[in-house]
Write a structure and sequence with these properties.
- Helices cover 25% and strands 28% of the residues.
- Helix 1 crosses helix 10.
- The longest helix has 20 residues.
- The chain is flat, with a radius of gyration of 23 Å.
- The N and C termini lie far apart (52 Å).
Length: 433
């Protein structure tokens, strides 16, 4: 079948219609005439792959990565970088309107960063596949549990991309390569850490091979024998700590390689700068930072003289946030509590009634959003809320409550391109009374 692509959906697929049915076409761009082959048919829609492009979009680009289309790590390399961001902005606007029945008073200028080599965190799968020549290390194939046969990766920093083939050789030479299913990457400003998930004890020869690899390639290896908290340094034992800095606020944030941090350090700096510009913390104000993690926003807020309460569901992250506050000389203005913010009574205790006495609020939830938090806000709630979102649908759902139930206005919203070449939409919204 031949159709004209009308738009892109939130997954970066082209959207067309044929005989009243929506066709979602991977590889198609808005305005293009394409042929397609369907791989899933439902009564109201089909999922398909473009088989031929007859009138290419002016925004189409040749993907830089030779594995694009097979590897599931990227889905939009065929679209020019700024057009990717424009598509994400439309996803945000459409979600706010169709889910929340809202339009921002102001659309914030999109935040850009480097398009390549930006990914400082990644989880790489490992599998012994004799039919493909041995051990594979990389991301999963698109729509598959198979691991892509990757020899390079354009979104990883070049030194890490260059390690993919040496890692294959390293693991293939271990005594039992089938018992090392995953490698987690964490890049700091002073050291790069690779966390090897090991299911069986290593032999003495295995340990020697790991030490030689770490020394040759200038990385630190950690071993993880069970859950994330079991990860421990292996070699070299005296490597510098992992940290990233927010120079504008005079803050360094230390972290372990299995902790959650933003994958894109450069864009994270801009994200924090914009969030604080919108929040405008002042000396003497009381501000809550909900889902605070390691203190990515809490510590910059405290550096501006405000008193901040960081709230996080993980006791481990709270302890690390407290340590970061002490290390940065901010413990007097930044305190932290362990609270599950997905439970309504807990949220009511933090922000209910008079809004917890907070002047302002920053919310940075996971994909599930913060619906219990916004429902719990009392009449005297904070006059300004900055909401950082990694899912426009849950942002729109929570925005509907804030505006139509709690009496806020959606003053501004915009996207942050944290994950170039993917369909992931990070965004930020400002709510005011």
């Amino acid at each position: 079948m031949t159709v004209v692509i009308e738009s892109l959906d939130r997954e970066g697929r082209g959207v067309a219609r044929f005989e009243g049915k929506a066709i979602f076409i991977e590889g198609g761009l808005a305005g293009e005439t394409v042929s397609y082959a369907s791989y899933r048919r439902k009564p109201s829609y089909e999922l398909a792959t473009a088989t031929a492009i007859y009138e290419p979009s002016a925004e189409r680009e040749l993907p830089r990565c030779p594995h694009f289309g097979v590897c599931g790590g990227c889905s939009m390399q065929h679209l020019e970088a700024r057009a990717q961001v424009a598509a994400k902005q439309r996803v945000l606007e459409d979600s706010l309107w169709h889910i929340g029945k809202l339009r921002p008073e102001t659309m914030l200028r999109a935040v850009y960063g480097l398009s390549w080599g930006y990914r400082h965190r990644a989880r790489l799968s490992v599998r012994l596949v004799p039919k493909k020549g041995g051990v594979l290390v990389g991301f999963h194939e698109r729509k598959s549990s198979f691991i892509a046969d990757m020899t390079s990766c354009e979104v990883l920093p070049r030194p890490i991309s260059d390690l993919l083939l040496p890692l294959r050789s390293l693991i293939a030479g271990l005594s039992n390569p089938t018992r090392l299913p995953q490698i987690e990457l964490a890049v700091g400003e002073a050291v790069t850490v690779l966390v090897l998930r090991i299911l069986d004890p290593l032999s003495a020869d295995d340990e020697d091979a790991l030490r030689a690899f770490a020394a040759q390639h200038g990385v630190q290896l950690w071993l993880q024998r069970a859950g994330p908290d079991t990860a421990e340094p292996f070699f070299p034992p005296d490597a510098p700590p992992l940290f990233y800095s927010l120079p504008e606020f005079g803050v360094q944030i230390h972290f372990r390689p299995t902790d959650f941090t933003q994958v894109n350090h450069a864009v994270n700096r801009i994200l924090v700068r914009r969030a604080l510009a919108l929040l405008d913390p002042r000396p003497g104000e009381r501000i809550a930072d909900l889902f605070c993690g390691l203190g990515n926003f809490s510590l910059p807020i405290a550096s501006r003289g405000a008193e901040v309460l960081g709230v996080e569901g993980s006791a481990v992250l709270v302890r690390r946030a407290e340590a970061n506050a002490r290390a940065n000389g901010l413990a007097a203005r930044a305190r932290f509590e362990t609270v599950n913010l997905f439970e309504a009574p807990n949220c009511a205790a933090i922000v209910g009634n008079d809004g917890g006495g907070f002047d302002k609020l920053l919310i940075d939830p996971p994909r599930d959003g913060a619906v219990e938090v916004v429902k719990a806000l009392g009449e005297g709630g904070p006059r300004r809320i900055v909401y950082v979102s990694c899912d426009p649908a849950t942002l729109a759902r929570d925005a509907e409550v804030l505006v139509h139930v709690k009496g806020y206005r959606l003053a501004a919203a915009g996207v942050i391109n944290m994950f170039p070449h993917t369909s992931h939409v990070e965004s930020m919204a400002l709510f005011e009374k």
